[in-house]
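example protein:
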Amino acid sequence: MRAELEFDSFYARTRPRLLQQLTLVTLDREQAADALQDAYIRAWQQWDRIAEYDDPESWVRTVAYRRCVSHWRRLVTARRAAPRVAVDDVVAPVGTAEVVAVRQALAALSPEHRAVLVLHELCDLGVEEIAASLRVPRGTVKSRLARARTALARLLAEPPDPPPRPAPGAPAPVPPSATDPSRARPTAVPAVARIEVPDVLHP
């Protein structure tokens, strides 16, 4: 009974945070939820041992992420076998204009770069921890992190696409930000050197 109560408390405390993190990595909330559920099942099956770890949450995150990687590999194989079959990505719900901009920029990164950036900046994992979780060398983590930061800075600095021209004689459209300040595009790009951008995505 005590083990069940401890696990239930662990699950309730960590699942919302891990689901958000995995959703940002995968850009698919349903896939993230499925992978996370499997990871928690495995954690419960070994709870006597995992409960003694310094960071059980990191163990669950790693297991769930690796399941997502397996899913990606199967998806790539399926797309190569049937290139005409389209698979739509399901992006997590969005909020403010800054959150929209950051998530769109993250979506433009490669899965490898996005994973390293989210794990380092949002999950506060160090290079050693990320290398162990992703099973890649430390140098690879550092390289991917540097490239991800550079790419994110460039994507956030790019100006938005210009609006379409109105038809002759039609009234000029009113920008959404004129009636809804929450939809205004941020005027300043966060300092990517410090990576403050993901802070807006914390729950």
